[in-house]
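Weekly structure sync, notes
Attendees: PL (lead), two postdocs, one rotation student
Agenda item 3: pending single-chain targets
PL asked that the sequence for the first pending target be pasted directly into the notes so everyone works from the same version. It is reproduced below exactly as submitted, 406 residues in total.
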Amino acid sequence: MGDQVGRVRDVVVALRASGEEPRVLGLVVEVPGRRRIFLPMTRVTSIDAGQVITTGLVNMRRFQQRPTETLVLGEMLDRTVTILEDSTTAVVEDVGMEQQRTRDWEVTRVFVRRPGKGLRRRGEAITLEWRDVSGFSVDEEGQGAANLLATFEKLNAADLATVLHGLSPKRRAEVAAALDDETLADVLEELPEDDQVEILGKLEEERAADVLEAMQPDDAADLLSELPHDDAEKLLELMEPDEAAPLRRLLSYSDDSAGGMMTTDPVVLPPDATVADALARVRQPELSPALAAQVYVCRPPLETPTGRYIGIAHIQRLLREPPSALVSGVVDSGIEPLRPDVPLGEITHHLATYNLVAVPVVDEDDHLLGAVTVDDVLDHLLPDDWRARDRAALAAGAEPEVEHGA
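Predicted structure, written out during the meeting:
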């Protein structure tokens, strides 16, 4: 047995004229670090259920699609094609490929589904020879995003963002339009700013406002700051007032200050809340690990800006206390909060000095405004294009090759 190299994410084919079967050029393989590489079919020795076996050295250079190449999952599935026998249309749901006597691999069959009729929800599904359908010309349109989304439905937001980043602008817009607001919000938070602006700009204004409401306030404010002022203001006007207000406050601060980096939605509890109340709040799945690591104890009101800030209750301490104990009894009041105008360097020093994953931000009257998390700081410390860089190349300083085989 050889070493596992990665997971197959797509198949690269070359379409040919006169209805000839497309030649399979290779596979797009995702290796550790979410790098996508190209594996030529000439290196593939066997394709079995659940595994592809290859020998030799694999070039670890990042895959870049060429104009003459077509991706099966990314560009062929969900395409509307014409069945030549009766000139009816159908939607492509899968394709089949076979190895020829020349040892080349070709796409030979197409699995399609006809439109449903009457009360039938799903139309007839049939398998056809490649030559029996038309509609795969590189100049023809018609592929939707449904099958592509189904292929990647188990990916987390960061991985799905990597997928979107690698798609063409047209396909990226189609997939973004098909995602629900919450998922698209999570994905936008993981994308480079250029992709964020591009995707948001192609959404209807009302939906763009809904997506911004679903994003973390600090990420939404960062995205709005990249838009022309009039466009940002229009989106803020379309948002619910209580959702827009925190973003307006964040936009009033410098990007590299505590106020500009903080989230306005930390976990806030009153002093008479119990440890059980606190643990129930930090179990909420939408909380990031950094925000779930501690709760902020404040006098009412509990929405930021809150009443007077009292202190932090760390989750490690909460786990050691009886559920009926009050959070006010386990508050750590020895960690000084930050003012919103504190610069990035001082925030970083503060987090490192006190071994924190988040730090509170208060105004001059000790009202809690929000919290800066360590991931917010990293976003500002790393290069602007860090998401697109290969972590393995950064660590090694080169593009390695790995040896593997059967």
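Discussion points:
- The radius of gyration is 26 Å.
- Residues 73-134 form one domain.
Action: rotation student to compare against the earlier draft before next sync.
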